[in-house]
Amino acid sequence: MTTGDDRPTLTTRQGHPVHDNQNQRTVGARGPSTLENYHFLEKISHFDRERIPERVVHARGVTTFGYFEAYGKLGDEPISRFTRAKLFQEAGKRTDVAVRFSTVIGGRDSAETARDPRGFAVKFYTEDGNWDLVGNNLGVFFIRDAIKFPDVIHALKPDPVTFRQEPARIFDFMSQTPESMHMLVNLFSPRGIPATYRFMQGFGVNTYKWVNDRNETLLVKYHWMPKQGVRSLTVEDAAAIQANDLGHATKDLMEAIDRGDHPEWELLVQVMSDDEHAELDFDPLDDTKVWPENDFPPRPVGRLVLNRNVSNNFAENEQISFGTGVLVDGLDFSDDKMLVGRTFSYSDTQRYRVGPNYLQLPVNQAKNADVRTNQRDGLMAYHVDGAGENPHVNYEPSITGGLREAPSPGEEVGPVLTGRLTRRRIPRTNDYTQAGQRYLLMHQWERDDLVQNLVTLISECARPVQERMVWHFLLAEDELGLRVGQGLGITPADVTHLEPLPGQTLTDEDRQRLSQLGKNGPRDVTGLKMTHCVPDERGLPA
Q1: pLDDT digit string (tens) for 1-48?
Q2: Is 262 an active-site residue?
Q3: SS3 annotation, 293-348
Q4: What predicted TM-score, i.e. pTM, was given to this entire model?
Q5: Cα dihedral: 183, 185, 189, 194 (round 10)
Q6: Are 88 and 136 in contact (CB under 8 A)?
Q7: Which candidate in 16, 19, 39, 136 is catalytic?
Q8: Could you confirm whether 58 is annotated as catalytic?
Q9: Active-site residue among 39, 58, 472, 532?
Q10: What percent of the chain has pLDDT over 90?
Protein backbone atom coordinates (compact mmCIF):
# COMPACT_ATOMS: atom_id res chain seq x y z
CA MET A 1 0.00 0.00 0.00
CA THR A 2 1.49 3.29 -1.07
CA THR A 3 1.24 6.56 0.78
CA GLY A 4 -1.90 8.49 -0.04
CA ASP A 5 -3.75 5.44 -1.39
CA ASP A 6 -7.13 5.65 0.31
CA ARG A 7 -8.93 3.00 -1.73
CA PRO A 8 -10.93 0.38 0.24
CA THR A 9 -8.94 -2.63 1.42
CA LEU A 10 -9.35 -6.09 -0.18
CA THR A 11 -10.72 -8.71 2.25
CA THR A 12 -11.73 -12.34 2.28
CA ARG A 13 -15.41 -13.32 2.43
CA GLN A 14 -14.93 -13.58 6.19
CA GLY A 15 -14.01 -9.89 6.24
CA HIS A 16 -10.31 -10.53 6.95
CA PRO A 17 -7.92 -8.03 5.32
CA VAL A 18 -5.76 -9.54 2.57
CA HIS A 19 -2.15 -8.45 3.02
CA ASP A 20 -0.69 -10.35 0.04
CA ASN A 21 -2.84 -11.20 -2.96
CA GLN A 22 0.12 -12.19 -5.15
CA ASN A 23 1.70 -15.15 -3.36
CA GLN A 24 0.52 -18.33 -1.66
CA ARG A 25 1.91 -19.30 1.71
CA THR A 26 4.70 -21.82 1.05
CA VAL A 27 7.60 -23.56 2.76
CA GLY A 28 10.36 -21.36 1.43
CA ALA A 29 10.05 -19.13 -1.60
CA ARG A 30 9.88 -22.10 -4.00
CA GLY A 31 7.34 -24.17 -2.05
CA PRO A 32 5.71 -26.53 -1.43
CA SER A 33 2.40 -24.87 -0.54
CA THR A 34 0.77 -25.41 2.83
CA LEU A 35 -2.75 -26.68 3.32
CA GLU A 36 -3.86 -23.87 5.62
CA ASN A 37 -3.72 -21.27 2.78
CA TYR A 38 -7.18 -19.98 3.72
CA HIS A 39 -7.20 -16.97 1.40
CA PHE A 40 -5.96 -19.00 -1.55
CA LEU A 41 -8.41 -21.86 -0.89
CA GLU A 42 -11.37 -19.51 -0.56
CA LYS A 43 -10.36 -17.66 -3.71
CA ILE A 44 -9.68 -20.67 -5.93
CA SER A 45 -12.60 -22.78 -4.69
CA HIS A 46 -15.01 -19.91 -5.37
CA PHE A 47 -13.45 -19.45 -8.82
CA ASP A 48 -14.05 -23.15 -9.50
CA ARG A 49 -17.74 -22.52 -8.83
CA GLU A 50 -18.19 -19.20 -10.60
CA ARG A 51 -20.36 -20.78 -13.26
CA ILE A 52 -23.76 -22.21 -12.55
CA PRO A 53 -25.35 -24.61 -15.05
CA GLU A 54 -26.37 -22.54 -18.04
CA ARG A 55 -29.98 -22.49 -19.07
CA VAL A 56 -30.89 -25.40 -21.33
CA VAL A 57 -32.68 -22.83 -23.48
CA HIS A 58 -32.27 -19.03 -23.46
CA ALA A 59 -28.66 -19.36 -22.24
CA ARG A 60 -27.41 -16.30 -24.16
CA GLY A 61 -29.17 -13.17 -23.02
CA VAL A 62 -29.03 -9.61 -21.71
CA THR A 63 -31.06 -8.01 -18.91
CA THR A 64 -32.02 -4.35 -18.61
CA PHE A 65 -34.30 -2.41 -16.32
CA GLY A 66 -36.96 0.24 -16.65
CA TYR A 67 -40.64 0.78 -16.05
CA PHE A 68 -44.07 -0.06 -17.39
CA GLU A 69 -46.53 2.83 -17.59
CA ALA A 70 -50.23 1.97 -17.68
CA TYR A 71 -52.77 3.81 -19.82
CA GLY A 72 -55.68 2.88 -17.52
CA LYS A 73 -57.65 1.70 -20.55
CA LEU A 74 -57.93 -1.17 -23.01
CA GLY A 75 -58.04 0.88 -26.17
CA ASP A 76 -60.74 3.47 -25.41
CA GLU A 77 -62.51 1.54 -22.63
CA PRO A 78 -61.73 1.60 -18.89
CA ILE A 79 -59.56 -1.40 -18.22
CA SER A 80 -61.39 -2.16 -14.96
CA ARG A 81 -64.16 -3.64 -17.10
CA PHE A 82 -61.75 -6.39 -18.12
CA THR A 83 -59.26 -6.96 -15.29
CA ARG A 84 -58.77 -5.95 -11.68
CA ALA A 85 -54.96 -6.26 -11.88
CA LYS A 86 -53.76 -3.15 -10.04
CA LEU A 87 -50.82 -2.32 -12.28
CA PHE A 88 -53.17 -1.57 -15.22
CA GLN A 89 -55.84 0.49 -13.47
CA GLU A 90 -54.49 4.03 -13.21
CA ALA A 91 -53.32 6.08 -16.19
CA GLY A 92 -49.68 7.04 -15.67
CA LYS A 93 -49.06 4.43 -12.96
CA ARG A 94 -45.51 3.12 -13.27
CA THR A 95 -44.30 -0.33 -12.29
CA ASP A 96 -40.59 -1.22 -12.14
CA VAL A 97 -39.56 -3.96 -14.56
CA ALA A 98 -36.61 -6.14 -15.50
CA VAL A 99 -36.50 -7.39 -19.10
CA ARG A 100 -34.33 -10.21 -20.42
CA PHE A 101 -33.82 -10.66 -24.16
CA SER A 102 -32.22 -13.91 -25.27
CA THR A 103 -31.59 -16.45 -27.97
CA VAL A 104 -33.13 -19.88 -27.39
CA ILE A 105 -30.99 -22.71 -28.74
CA GLY A 106 -27.38 -21.48 -28.60
CA GLY A 107 -25.15 -21.70 -25.53
CA ARG A 108 -24.13 -18.83 -23.29
CA ASP A 109 -21.30 -17.72 -25.61
CA SER A 110 -23.08 -18.34 -28.93
CA ALA A 111 -23.60 -15.74 -31.65
CA GLU A 112 -26.53 -13.35 -31.43
CA THR A 113 -26.78 -13.50 -35.22
CA ALA A 114 -28.02 -17.09 -35.19
CA ARG A 115 -31.36 -17.99 -36.73
CA ASP A 116 -33.25 -18.71 -33.56
CA PRO A 117 -36.36 -17.58 -31.70
CA ARG A 118 -35.61 -14.75 -29.27
CA GLY A 119 -36.87 -14.64 -25.72
CA PHE A 120 -38.69 -11.51 -24.52
CA ALA A 121 -39.24 -11.95 -20.76
CA VAL A 122 -40.58 -9.16 -18.55
CA LYS A 123 -40.63 -9.19 -14.74
CA PHE A 124 -43.05 -6.64 -13.27
CA TYR A 125 -42.31 -5.75 -9.62
CA THR A 126 -45.93 -4.93 -8.71
CA GLU A 127 -47.48 -4.00 -5.37
CA ASP A 128 -49.17 -7.41 -5.34
CA GLY A 129 -45.90 -9.24 -5.93
CA ASN A 130 -44.07 -10.13 -9.11
CA TRP A 131 -45.64 -10.86 -12.48
CA ASP A 132 -43.54 -12.59 -15.14
CA LEU A 133 -44.67 -12.31 -18.75
CA VAL A 134 -42.39 -14.78 -20.54
CA GLY A 135 -42.57 -14.73 -24.32
CA ASN A 136 -40.75 -14.83 -27.64
CA ASN A 137 -40.22 -12.51 -30.60
CA LEU A 138 -42.35 -14.72 -32.86
CA GLY A 139 -46.11 -14.91 -32.35
CA VAL A 140 -46.42 -18.70 -32.42
CA PHE A 141 -44.49 -21.81 -31.39
CA PHE A 142 -43.47 -25.14 -32.96
CA ILE A 143 -45.80 -27.32 -30.90
CA ARG A 144 -49.11 -27.11 -29.06
CA ASP A 145 -48.53 -29.62 -26.24
CA ALA A 146 -45.71 -29.31 -23.69
CA ILE A 147 -45.06 -33.05 -23.73
CA LYS A 148 -43.29 -32.46 -27.06
CA PHE A 149 -41.04 -29.68 -25.74
CA PRO A 150 -38.00 -31.90 -24.98
CA ASP A 151 -38.32 -33.41 -28.47
CA VAL A 152 -38.43 -30.14 -30.39
CA ILE A 153 -35.53 -28.73 -28.39
CA HIS A 154 -33.50 -31.92 -28.85
CA ALA A 155 -34.10 -31.68 -32.62
CA LEU A 156 -32.91 -28.06 -32.66
CA LYS A 157 -29.93 -28.61 -30.35
CA PRO A 158 -26.60 -30.05 -31.56
CA ASP A 159 -26.43 -33.69 -32.63
CA PRO A 160 -25.44 -35.82 -29.59
CA VAL A 161 -22.67 -37.46 -31.68
CA THR A 162 -21.32 -34.70 -33.96
CA PHE A 163 -22.29 -31.82 -31.62
CA ARG A 164 -23.36 -29.76 -34.63
CA GLN A 165 -26.78 -28.29 -35.26
CA GLU A 166 -27.89 -30.51 -38.15
CA PRO A 167 -30.66 -29.45 -40.58
CA ALA A 168 -31.30 -33.13 -41.31
CA ARG A 169 -32.34 -33.63 -37.67
CA ILE A 170 -34.37 -30.45 -37.49
CA PHE A 171 -36.47 -31.12 -40.57
CA ASP A 172 -36.75 -34.82 -39.82
CA PHE A 173 -38.69 -33.82 -36.70
CA MET A 174 -40.59 -30.95 -38.34
CA SER A 175 -41.63 -33.10 -41.31
CA GLN A 176 -43.48 -35.33 -38.85
CA THR A 177 -44.96 -32.36 -36.95
CA PRO A 178 -47.41 -30.50 -39.22
CA GLU A 179 -48.31 -28.04 -36.47
CA SER A 180 -44.79 -26.56 -36.80
CA MET A 181 -45.41 -25.13 -40.30
CA HIS A 182 -46.61 -21.74 -39.08
CA MET A 183 -43.54 -21.34 -36.86
CA LEU A 184 -41.19 -22.47 -39.64
CA VAL A 185 -42.57 -19.85 -42.04
CA ASN A 186 -41.75 -17.24 -39.39
CA LEU A 187 -38.43 -18.60 -38.15
CA PHE A 188 -36.82 -19.13 -41.56
CA SER A 189 -37.91 -15.72 -42.79
CA PRO A 190 -35.77 -12.71 -41.88
CA ARG A 191 -37.70 -12.37 -38.61
CA GLY A 192 -35.78 -15.43 -37.44
CA ILE A 193 -32.78 -13.08 -37.14
CA PRO A 194 -33.83 -9.75 -35.58
CA ALA A 195 -31.41 -6.92 -36.41
CA THR A 196 -31.01 -6.20 -32.69
CA TYR A 197 -33.15 -6.60 -29.59
CA ARG A 198 -34.37 -3.01 -29.84
CA PHE A 199 -36.05 -3.71 -33.18
CA MET A 200 -37.98 -6.88 -32.46
CA GLN A 201 -41.52 -7.62 -31.39
CA GLY A 202 -42.45 -9.64 -28.34
CA PHE A 203 -45.36 -12.03 -27.89
CA GLY A 204 -46.69 -13.78 -24.81
CA VAL A 205 -47.53 -16.67 -27.23
CA ASN A 206 -49.56 -18.47 -24.54
CA THR A 207 -53.21 -17.69 -23.92
CA TYR A 208 -53.89 -16.28 -20.46
CA LYS A 209 -56.99 -14.98 -18.70
CA TRP A 210 -58.04 -11.70 -17.18
CA VAL A 211 -60.39 -11.52 -14.19
CA ASN A 212 -62.40 -8.43 -13.23
CA ASP A 213 -64.05 -7.40 -9.93
CA ARG A 214 -67.16 -9.41 -10.82
CA ASN A 215 -65.05 -12.55 -11.28
CA GLU A 216 -65.80 -12.51 -15.01
CA THR A 217 -63.02 -13.95 -17.14
CA LEU A 218 -61.66 -13.28 -20.62
CA LEU A 219 -59.04 -15.04 -22.72
CA VAL A 220 -56.12 -12.72 -23.53
CA LYS A 221 -52.96 -12.59 -25.61
CA TYR A 222 -50.13 -10.10 -25.07
CA HIS A 223 -47.99 -8.40 -27.72
CA TRP A 224 -45.06 -5.99 -27.43
CA MET A 225 -44.64 -3.60 -30.38
CA PRO A 226 -41.35 -1.68 -30.62
CA LYS A 227 -41.69 2.07 -31.00
CA GLN A 228 -38.36 1.88 -32.87
CA GLY A 229 -39.95 -0.25 -35.62
CA VAL A 230 -39.15 -3.81 -36.68
CA ARG A 231 -35.87 -4.67 -38.44
CA SER A 232 -34.55 -8.08 -39.43
CA LEU A 233 -31.50 -9.58 -41.12
CA THR A 234 -30.93 -11.90 -44.04
CA VAL A 235 -28.37 -14.69 -43.77
CA GLU A 236 -25.84 -12.55 -45.63
CA ASP A 237 -26.45 -9.57 -43.34
CA ALA A 238 -26.02 -11.74 -40.26
CA ALA A 239 -22.82 -13.34 -41.56
CA ALA A 240 -21.27 -9.91 -42.14
CA ILE A 241 -22.01 -8.92 -38.54
CA GLN A 242 -20.90 -12.25 -37.06
CA ALA A 243 -17.51 -11.93 -38.75
CA ASN A 244 -16.70 -9.16 -36.29
CA ASP A 245 -18.97 -9.56 -33.25
CA LEU A 246 -20.77 -12.43 -31.53
CA GLY A 247 -22.68 -10.14 -29.17
CA HIS A 248 -23.80 -7.27 -31.39
CA ALA A 249 -27.39 -7.21 -30.09
CA THR A 250 -26.37 -6.95 -26.44
CA LYS A 251 -23.86 -4.23 -27.32
CA ASP A 252 -26.46 -2.29 -29.30
CA LEU A 253 -29.01 -2.39 -26.48
CA MET A 254 -26.62 -1.47 -23.70
CA GLU A 255 -24.97 1.34 -25.64
CA ALA A 256 -28.35 2.81 -26.60
CA ILE A 257 -29.42 2.90 -22.96
CA ASP A 258 -26.09 4.36 -21.83
CA ARG A 259 -26.40 7.24 -24.29
CA GLY A 260 -29.97 7.99 -23.19
CA ASP A 261 -31.68 6.52 -26.27
CA HIS A 262 -34.14 4.52 -24.20
CA PRO A 263 -36.03 1.91 -26.25
CA GLU A 264 -39.79 1.66 -25.88
CA TRP A 265 -42.46 -0.90 -26.63
CA GLU A 266 -46.23 -0.62 -26.46
CA LEU A 267 -48.15 -3.46 -24.85
CA LEU A 268 -51.15 -4.51 -26.95
CA VAL A 269 -53.73 -7.00 -25.74
CA GLN A 270 -56.25 -9.11 -27.64
CA VAL A 271 -59.29 -10.37 -25.72
CA MET A 272 -62.05 -12.86 -26.44
CA SER A 273 -64.78 -14.44 -24.36
CA ASP A 274 -63.77 -17.36 -22.18
CA ASP A 275 -65.27 -20.30 -24.06
CA GLU A 276 -64.32 -22.79 -26.75
CA HIS A 277 -65.24 -20.55 -29.75
CA ALA A 278 -66.65 -23.25 -31.99
CA GLU A 279 -67.16 -20.62 -34.71
CA LEU A 280 -63.39 -20.38 -35.29
CA ASP A 281 -61.42 -22.75 -37.50
CA PHE A 282 -58.70 -22.98 -34.84
CA ASP A 283 -58.58 -23.39 -31.07
CA PRO A 284 -57.74 -20.12 -29.26
CA LEU A 285 -55.61 -22.13 -26.80
CA ASP A 286 -53.37 -23.44 -29.63
CA ASP A 287 -49.89 -21.86 -29.47
CA THR A 288 -49.29 -22.57 -33.16
CA LYS A 289 -51.99 -20.01 -34.05
CA VAL A 290 -52.46 -16.27 -33.80
CA TRP A 291 -55.78 -14.52 -33.32
CA PRO A 292 -56.53 -12.55 -36.52
CA GLU A 293 -56.65 -8.83 -35.86
CA ASN A 294 -59.74 -8.41 -38.03
CA ASP A 295 -61.77 -10.34 -35.46
CA PHE A 296 -59.81 -9.60 -32.28
CA PRO A 297 -58.12 -6.22 -32.62
CA PRO A 298 -55.04 -5.69 -30.42
CA ARG A 299 -55.57 -2.66 -28.21
CA PRO A 300 -52.95 -0.72 -26.21
CA VAL A 301 -52.82 -0.90 -22.41
CA GLY A 302 -49.44 0.66 -21.62
CA ARG A 303 -45.85 1.24 -22.61
CA LEU A 304 -42.49 -0.23 -21.59
CA VAL A 305 -39.36 1.92 -21.29
CA LEU A 306 -35.86 0.54 -20.64
CA ASN A 307 -33.46 3.04 -19.06
CA ARG A 308 -30.86 1.18 -16.97
CA ASN A 309 -28.30 -1.55 -17.61
CA VAL A 310 -27.16 -4.19 -15.14
CA SER A 311 -24.45 -3.30 -12.66
CA ASN A 312 -23.28 -6.92 -12.59
CA ASN A 313 -24.07 -9.35 -15.40
CA PHE A 314 -23.93 -12.51 -13.30
CA ALA A 315 -26.07 -11.28 -10.41
CA GLU A 316 -28.71 -9.53 -12.52
CA ASN A 317 -28.71 -11.41 -15.83
CA GLU A 318 -27.36 -14.91 -15.31
CA GLN A 319 -29.31 -15.40 -12.08
CA ILE A 320 -32.53 -13.59 -13.00
CA SER A 321 -35.28 -16.17 -13.11
CA PHE A 322 -38.67 -16.11 -14.79
CA GLY A 323 -41.70 -18.38 -14.72
CA THR A 324 -45.04 -18.43 -16.50
CA GLY A 325 -46.72 -19.36 -13.23
CA VAL A 326 -45.84 -16.02 -11.65
CA LEU A 327 -49.13 -14.10 -11.85
CA VAL A 328 -50.84 -11.47 -9.70
CA ASP A 329 -54.48 -10.94 -8.76
CA GLY A 330 -56.59 -10.12 -11.82
CA LEU A 331 -54.48 -12.38 -14.08
CA ASP A 332 -55.03 -16.12 -14.41
CA PHE A 333 -54.11 -19.25 -16.35
CA SER A 334 -55.98 -20.67 -19.29
CA ASP A 335 -56.00 -24.38 -20.16
CA ASP A 336 -53.36 -23.81 -22.86
CA LYS A 337 -51.42 -27.11 -22.85
CA MET A 338 -48.09 -25.36 -23.41
CA LEU A 339 -48.74 -22.88 -20.60
CA VAL A 340 -49.48 -25.64 -18.09
CA GLY A 341 -46.23 -27.42 -18.96
CA ARG A 342 -44.14 -24.24 -18.91
CA THR A 343 -45.56 -23.26 -15.53
CA PHE A 344 -43.99 -26.35 -13.96
CA SER A 345 -40.82 -26.42 -16.03
CA TYR A 346 -39.64 -22.82 -15.72
CA SER A 347 -39.65 -22.61 -11.93
CA ASP A 348 -38.32 -26.16 -11.64
CA THR A 349 -35.31 -25.39 -13.80
CA GLN A 350 -34.46 -22.30 -11.70
CA ARG A 351 -34.49 -24.39 -8.52
CA TYR A 352 -32.01 -26.72 -10.24
CA ARG A 353 -29.79 -24.02 -11.76
CA VAL A 354 -29.72 -21.35 -9.07
CA GLY A 355 -30.99 -23.23 -6.04
CA PRO A 356 -34.15 -23.56 -3.95
CA ASN A 357 -33.70 -20.03 -2.61
CA TYR A 358 -33.35 -18.31 -5.98
CA LEU A 359 -36.26 -16.02 -5.09
CA GLN A 360 -34.19 -14.51 -2.25
CA LEU A 361 -31.75 -13.02 -4.77
CA PRO A 362 -32.28 -9.26 -5.14
CA VAL A 363 -33.09 -9.39 -8.85
CA ASN A 364 -35.79 -12.00 -8.24
CA GLN A 365 -37.29 -10.64 -5.03
CA ALA A 366 -40.70 -9.03 -4.88
CA LYS A 367 -39.62 -5.41 -4.39
CA ASN A 368 -42.96 -3.70 -3.79
CA ALA A 369 -44.80 -6.36 -1.78
CA ASP A 370 -44.06 -7.99 1.56
CA VAL A 371 -42.79 -11.58 1.46
CA ARG A 372 -43.91 -13.75 4.38
CA THR A 373 -43.62 -17.52 4.04
CA ASN A 374 -43.09 -20.59 6.17
CA GLN A 375 -40.34 -21.76 3.81
CA ARG A 376 -37.07 -22.32 5.65
CA ASP A 377 -33.48 -23.34 5.07
CA GLY A 378 -32.25 -25.06 1.90
CA LEU A 379 -29.12 -24.43 -0.13
CA MET A 380 -27.88 -20.83 -0.04
CA ALA A 381 -30.60 -19.37 2.18
CA TYR A 382 -29.22 -16.01 3.24
CA HIS A 383 -32.14 -14.56 5.14
CA VAL A 384 -35.36 -15.73 6.73
CA ASP A 385 -38.52 -14.66 4.93
CA GLY A 386 -40.93 -12.48 6.84
CA ALA A 387 -42.87 -14.50 9.38
CA GLY A 388 -45.60 -14.12 11.98
CA GLU A 389 -45.28 -12.64 15.46
CA ASN A 390 -43.96 -15.87 16.95
CA PRO A 391 -40.57 -16.93 15.51
CA HIS A 392 -41.12 -20.48 16.77
CA VAL A 393 -44.07 -21.01 14.44
CA ASN A 394 -43.18 -21.87 10.84
CA TYR A 395 -46.39 -23.70 10.05
CA GLU A 396 -50.03 -22.88 9.36
CA PRO A 397 -52.65 -23.01 10.83
CA SER A 398 -51.65 -21.71 14.24
CA ILE A 399 -53.25 -19.64 17.01
CA THR A 400 -49.93 -18.82 18.68
CA GLY A 401 -48.65 -16.01 16.50
CA GLY A 402 -48.13 -17.66 13.11
CA LEU A 403 -49.17 -16.47 9.68
CA ARG A 404 -52.78 -16.68 8.50
CA GLU A 405 -54.40 -17.18 5.13
CA ALA A 406 -55.44 -14.12 3.14
CA PRO A 407 -59.16 -13.39 2.73
CA SER A 408 -60.76 -15.37 -0.06
CA PRO A 409 -61.12 -13.47 -3.36
CA GLY A 410 -64.44 -15.24 -3.91
CA GLU A 411 -65.58 -18.20 -5.92
CA GLU A 412 -63.23 -19.80 -8.39
CA VAL A 413 -63.59 -18.20 -11.81
CA GLY A 414 -63.97 -19.53 -15.32
CA PRO A 415 -66.22 -21.98 -17.14
CA VAL A 416 -67.44 -25.27 -15.74
CA LEU A 417 -65.72 -28.16 -17.54
CA THR A 418 -66.73 -31.76 -17.98
CA GLY A 419 -64.85 -34.41 -19.90
CA ARG A 420 -63.14 -37.78 -19.82
CA LEU A 421 -59.49 -37.97 -18.80
CA THR A 422 -57.72 -38.71 -22.07
CA ARG A 423 -54.60 -38.31 -24.19
CA ARG A 424 -55.78 -36.61 -27.37
CA ARG A 425 -54.76 -33.63 -29.44
CA ILE A 426 -57.18 -30.74 -29.75
CA PRO A 427 -59.78 -31.31 -32.51
CA ARG A 428 -59.29 -28.12 -34.59
CA THR A 429 -55.65 -28.44 -35.62
CA ASN A 430 -55.84 -26.59 -38.98
CA ASP A 431 -52.07 -26.66 -39.39
CA TYR A 432 -51.73 -24.98 -42.78
CA THR A 433 -54.08 -22.00 -43.20
CA GLN A 434 -52.24 -19.43 -41.09
CA ALA A 435 -48.85 -20.59 -42.37
CA GLY A 436 -50.01 -19.90 -45.94
CA GLN A 437 -51.55 -16.57 -44.99
CA ARG A 438 -48.38 -15.53 -43.20
CA TYR A 439 -46.31 -16.28 -46.31
CA LEU A 440 -48.55 -14.19 -48.55
CA LEU A 441 -48.52 -11.25 -46.13
CA MET A 442 -44.72 -11.04 -46.16
CA HIS A 443 -42.74 -8.49 -48.14
CA GLN A 444 -41.22 -9.93 -51.29
CA TRP A 445 -37.68 -9.72 -49.87
CA GLU A 446 -38.85 -11.75 -46.85
CA ARG A 447 -40.40 -14.41 -49.09
CA ASP A 448 -37.25 -14.67 -51.16
CA ASP A 449 -35.06 -15.02 -48.08
CA LEU A 450 -37.41 -17.61 -46.56
CA VAL A 451 -37.34 -19.78 -49.67
CA GLN A 452 -33.57 -19.52 -50.00
CA ASN A 453 -33.08 -20.52 -46.36
CA LEU A 454 -35.45 -23.47 -46.59
CA VAL A 455 -33.93 -24.78 -49.82
CA THR A 456 -30.38 -24.45 -48.48
CA LEU A 457 -31.08 -26.34 -45.27
CA ILE A 458 -33.61 -28.92 -46.43
CA SER A 459 -31.24 -29.90 -49.25
CA GLU A 460 -29.07 -31.48 -46.54
CA CYS A 461 -31.92 -33.81 -45.53
CA ALA A 462 -32.76 -37.31 -46.74
CA ARG A 463 -35.03 -37.43 -49.80
CA PRO A 464 -38.11 -38.64 -47.85
CA VAL A 465 -37.78 -35.68 -45.49
CA GLN A 466 -37.44 -33.28 -48.43
CA GLU A 467 -40.56 -34.69 -50.09
CA ARG A 468 -42.63 -34.49 -46.90
CA MET A 469 -41.58 -30.87 -46.30
CA VAL A 470 -42.56 -29.89 -49.87
CA TRP A 471 -45.89 -31.70 -49.34
CA HIS A 472 -46.51 -29.64 -46.19
CA PHE A 473 -45.58 -26.37 -47.88
CA LEU A 474 -47.86 -27.08 -50.84
CA LEU A 475 -50.74 -27.58 -48.43
CA ALA A 476 -49.86 -24.25 -46.81
CA GLU A 477 -49.51 -22.20 -50.00
CA ASP A 478 -48.84 -23.12 -53.63
CA GLU A 479 -46.13 -20.56 -54.24
CA LEU A 480 -44.18 -21.55 -51.14
CA GLY A 481 -44.32 -25.26 -51.94
CA LEU A 482 -43.56 -24.78 -55.63
CA ARG A 483 -40.57 -22.52 -55.00
CA VAL A 484 -39.06 -24.73 -52.32
CA GLY A 485 -39.76 -27.79 -54.47
CA GLN A 486 -38.09 -26.19 -57.47
CA GLY A 487 -35.00 -25.49 -55.40
CA LEU A 488 -34.89 -29.11 -54.27
CA GLY A 489 -35.81 -30.64 -57.64
CA ILE A 490 -39.15 -31.92 -56.35
CA THR A 491 -42.45 -31.36 -58.18
CA PRO A 492 -46.01 -31.76 -56.88
CA ALA A 493 -46.22 -34.96 -58.92
CA ASP A 494 -43.30 -36.35 -56.89
CA VAL A 495 -45.24 -36.03 -53.63
CA THR A 496 -48.85 -36.73 -54.57
CA HIS A 497 -48.40 -40.33 -53.47
CA LEU A 498 -47.79 -39.27 -49.88
CA GLU A 499 -50.59 -40.02 -47.44
CA PRO A 500 -51.38 -37.80 -44.45
CA LEU A 501 -49.24 -38.62 -41.44
CA PRO A 502 -50.60 -41.18 -38.96
CA GLY A 503 -53.04 -39.44 -36.66
CA GLN A 504 -52.95 -36.22 -38.69
CA THR A 505 -56.28 -34.39 -38.95
CA LEU A 506 -56.96 -32.64 -42.27
CA THR A 507 -59.66 -30.03 -42.69
CA ASP A 508 -62.07 -30.14 -45.63
CA GLU A 509 -60.01 -27.38 -47.22
CA ASP A 510 -56.81 -29.41 -46.71
CA ARG A 511 -58.38 -32.39 -48.49
CA GLN A 512 -59.46 -30.16 -51.35
CA ARG A 513 -55.95 -28.75 -51.68
CA LEU A 514 -54.50 -32.25 -51.51
CA SER A 515 -56.70 -33.36 -54.41
CA GLN A 516 -55.09 -30.74 -56.68
CA LEU A 517 -51.70 -30.31 -55.04
CA GLY A 518 -49.82 -27.30 -56.40
CA LYS A 519 -52.78 -26.10 -58.48
CA ASN A 520 -54.93 -24.39 -55.84
CA GLY A 521 -53.95 -20.82 -56.54
CA PRO A 522 -53.12 -18.23 -53.87
CA ARG A 523 -55.22 -17.90 -50.74
CA ASP A 524 -57.32 -14.77 -50.45
CA VAL A 525 -55.70 -12.49 -47.85
CA THR A 526 -57.37 -9.29 -48.99
CA GLY A 527 -57.68 -6.96 -46.01
CA LEU A 528 -56.39 -9.61 -43.60
CA LYS A 529 -54.42 -8.37 -40.60
CA MET A 530 -52.21 -10.62 -38.48
CA THR A 531 -50.51 -9.37 -35.34
CA HIS A 532 -47.04 -10.49 -36.38
CA CYS A 533 -47.25 -8.96 -39.87
CA VAL A 534 -46.31 -5.35 -39.10
CA PRO A 535 -43.84 -3.81 -41.59
CA ASP A 536 -40.35 -5.27 -41.41
CA GLU A 537 -37.36 -3.21 -42.51
CA ARG A 538 -34.18 -4.94 -43.64
CA GLY A 539 -31.56 -4.17 -41.00
CA LEU A 540 -28.32 -3.92 -42.94
CA PRO A 541 -25.05 -4.39 -41.02
CA ALA A 542 -23.31 -1.18 -39.97
Answers
A1: 567 888 888 887 778 888 888 788 888 887 778 888 878 887 877 777
A2: no
A3: CCCCCCEEEEEEEEEEECCCHHHHHHCCCCCCCCCCCCEEECCCHHHHHHHHHHHH
A4: 0.92
A5: -20
A6: no
A7: 136
A8: yes
A9: 58
A10: 72
